[in-house]
Amino acid sequence: MAKSGKDSTEQVITFVREMIAKGELRQGDRLPAERDLSTKLGVSRPTIRAGLRALSAMGVVKSRHGSGTYIPEGPPTLGSEPLRFLAALHGLSRDEVYEARRVLEVSAAGLAAKRASAEHTAVIAEEVASLFASIDDPQEFLVHDIRFHRAVASASGNQIVASLVEMVSALYYEHRRDTAARATDRNLRDAADLHRAIYQAIRKHDIDLAQTLMNRHLLHSAAYQAQEDQPLGLQAARPVKGSRSPRKRAAAPDAS
Amino acid sequence: MAKSGKDSTEQVITFVREMIAKGELRQGDRLPAERDLSTKLGVSRPTIRAGLRALSAMGVVKSRHGSGTYIPEGPPTLGSEPLRFLAALHGLSRDEVYEARRVLEVSAAGLAAKRASAEHTAVIAEEVASLFASIDDPQEFLVHDIRFHRAVASASGNQIVASLVEMVSALYYEHRRDTAARATDRNLRDAADLHRAIYQAIRKHDIDLAQTLMNRHLLHSAAYQAQEDQPLGLQAARPVKGSRSPRKRAAAPDAS
DNA sequence: ATCACGGAAGTGGACTGTCCAATCGGCGTC
DNA sequence: GACGCCGATTGGACAGTCCACTTCCGTGAT
Predict the structure, then answer these.
(1) Structure pTM?
(2) I want to staple B116 with a disulfide (CB 3.0 to 4.6 A). Which of A65, B12, B16, B155 is the partner?
């Protein structure tokens, strides 16, 4: 009856929070069944469901029909859905997204250069190699581009920064995928070179250089994107085309 | 008209998303009543509630009992709850939180120095003045400290960056509030001086200096915090339960 | 003995119906 | 005209029931 008395649905969130805090729930674990939680917490099942739905929206849990409710595994992740709504509600410009991404990635590159381990640099090197190998396949190139940046973010050694990079980048990659098909060999070639330079800077622990190169890369990339799609103004005026929305997880077909 | 979705509850989210995209829903607006949405979307009310609960968890909407469900006003905000869970689940160290905050705030200071307007600098100046005025009142000092950093983030001109700063800082301020009462005049004096220096750098559009000073300030602050307390966890977000602080100073029922 | 198939049990997803509590506006009273 | 009360509206929560999907185990065919 302590602090949990305000909202019944808050009780659910608090309960899960405390289970996590106590170490009773870890990654990959399954939560008790909704019916069990219902009796255990003394609240109705719809209320339990509401609480779990909230946790699900926060990305804390993930429900699988017929199986159970689980805590996702893998690296820490912040959903990018809230950002999408935020952008729509406040009319955030695409430039702001680009800039935010640049801020995060440049910092991540700096951190990576500061403390990248041998394993981290190896992963990055691998992606650089894959980039050069897929210069003739824009879609494949994009996949390794994404993985490269993810590897750099991971090498930063700061999981929060990595999560933020992922969150903001997700917005960016969405239409990036559309323009990827139109990229020329020249663009990809230049991009691959820059990626390699960034990798080398990280490997040499040259913080300033890594940051500078990453900044240049992203500025260049943003400029290229900007010249690609003008219809920004048109899209705003035109009524939404209804069903084109990427409801499906558009995150790119990565397997590993 | 209901867009065919996999999940019934997804329909609700999609519906709201499209209303926002069409401009039919803006900040401060009230959503249709749950019962109306129920008939309009052809799904049951508990389902509507589940969808709204998810949106609420994302911070997109906010329900007020007896009044309605609204879209919050004010600057864009990303809840920090997900980060809290992330920290608990992945055992993120406090240092990571500090570092992430530093990364964001340093970048924000740089952007602010680049493009701060007269109004923005005025707001920052005001908070600096308030900092000096409340050197003998740690709690009040903390309030203006927070406002100062918020003003800087806002002056960055990038709402996404500002939101991220707010999100990460929220984690930080929680235990900061506990240690605030123990801060000495000397600490506050130094902090105020640094804040003033940061402000001046921003006003002079000296990007490098602003970043350097902000970085120094936060490093110093982190070092001070580190010597204060050890434990990290996720205590239930609200007031600390009885078992934590070895010595609790004056109660300070101030909730701000 | 092995493996594929089928069904039962467990789980989340959703619906119907009902009641409670908070809010807000309008009406009547003072 | 100001105040206060009361009811309509709205979100919050509950109970019971049914459905869809997943999983797994036992059965039977190979």
Answers:
(1) 0.85
(2) B155
